[in-house]
């Protein structure tokens, strides 16, 4: 009995040592991965360890084989990641190079700014920023499209006189919805308001482009410079739907330190964005009934 106990204890210590050794070698491998160089194969010690089995029992051999397979999988993933990184670097490099060769049209036309609001008298903060930072009232006329007829908010907007154009959306009729959808009524009203406001900008006031904001946004000092500089991209690149100044991840430490770098995205950034008349002619007739920022008919 003592011999059997000693045998099992000795086997257990051997197994623990093998696992510890593998973990150490795996840590060494991971700590030396270089994503800018060629991938390295798994350390030969791991292969020799798994191949020899060191006289281990079948159970230990199976464990070593599984560990070896995991190492091979990690090595393969490293190769794939390196390939992806190189592709991204090449695309960014080519994009920056080609951007210097593109001839962009000029001058930039008058671009309207429409602020969508309802019942927030604090819209004053946003309007003050727009008026402060816009380089020219003629180049960037400001329109405020107000829904719901909130009197205090209307007085704040009217106090700006001819610095802004106050558009009042008077269709406040209830939207008939099934009981299960009643909780979404606000989204239906927002979609209806947006469609009316954009129709006014393009059809009544005959603008060729518009920047869309909302009454609770803060803008940066280069807000108008950004849109004036990127407007030509909407003209030359027909695959672009809009230009947006909004980034959900736009915080220090999360963005690239490259002011000249723009990102394409297939996620609709629905705050602080610009579109042209041509896109409105396409989207206006099939404007969604709800969830403007994420729901588009095919």
Automatic annotation (TrEMBL):
It is an enzyme of class 2 (transferase). Its cofactor is Mn(2+). The keyword Signal does not apply. GO terms for biological process: protein N-linked glycosylation. GO terms for molecular function: alpha-1,3-mannosylglycoprotein 2-beta-N-acetylglucosaminyltransferase activity; manganese ion binding. Its EC number is 2.4.1.101. The keyword Glycosyltransferase applies. Keywords: Glycosyltransferase, Golgi apparatus, Manganese, Membrane, Metal-binding, Signal-anchor, Transferase, Transmembrane, Transmembrane helix. It comes from the Eukaryota. It is found in: Golgi apparatus membrane. Initiates complex N-linked carbohydrate formation. Essential for the conversion of high-mannose to hybrid and complex N-glycans. Belongs to the glycosyltransferase 13 family. This is Alpha-1,3-mannosyl-glycoprotein 2-beta-N-acetylglucosaminyltransferase.
């Amino acid at each position: 009995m003592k011999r059997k106990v000693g045998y099992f204890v000795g086997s257990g210590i051997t197994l623990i040592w093998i696992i510890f050794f593998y973990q150490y070698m795996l840590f060494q491998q991971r700590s030396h991965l270089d994503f800018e160089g060629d991938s390295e194969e798994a350390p030969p010690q791991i292969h020799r360890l798994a191949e020899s089995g060191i006289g281990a029992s079948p159970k230990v051999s199976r464990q070593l084989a599984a560990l070896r397979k995991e190492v091979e999988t990690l090595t393969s993933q490293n190769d794939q990641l390196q390939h992806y990184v190189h592709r991204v670097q090449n695309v960014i490099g080519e994009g920056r190079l080609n951007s210097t060769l593109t001839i962009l049209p000029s001058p930039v036309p008058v671009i309207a700014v429409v602020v969508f609001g309802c019942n927030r008298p604090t819209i004053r903060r946003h309007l003050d920023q727009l008026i402060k930072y816009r380089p020219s009232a003629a180049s960037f006329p400001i329109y405020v499209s107000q829904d719901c007829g909130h009197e205090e908010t209307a007085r704040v907007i009217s106090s700006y006189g001819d610095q802004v154009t106050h558009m009042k959306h008077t269709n406040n009729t209830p939207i008939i919805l099934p009981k299960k959808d009643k909780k979404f009524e606000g989204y239906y009203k927002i979609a209806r308001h947006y469609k009316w406001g954009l129709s006014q900008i393009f059809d009544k006031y005959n603008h060729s482009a518009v920047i869309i904001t909302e009454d609770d946004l803060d803008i940066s000092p280069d807000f108008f410079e950004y849109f004036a500089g990127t407007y030509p991209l909407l003209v030359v690149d027909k695959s672009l739907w809009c230009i947006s100044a909004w980034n959900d991840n736009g915080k220090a430490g999360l963005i690239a330190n490259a002011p000249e770098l723009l990102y394409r995205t297939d996620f609709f950034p629905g705050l602080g964005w610009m579109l042209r008349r041509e896109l409105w002619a396409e989207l206006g007739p099939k404007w969604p009934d709800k969830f403007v920022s994420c729901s588009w008919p095919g």
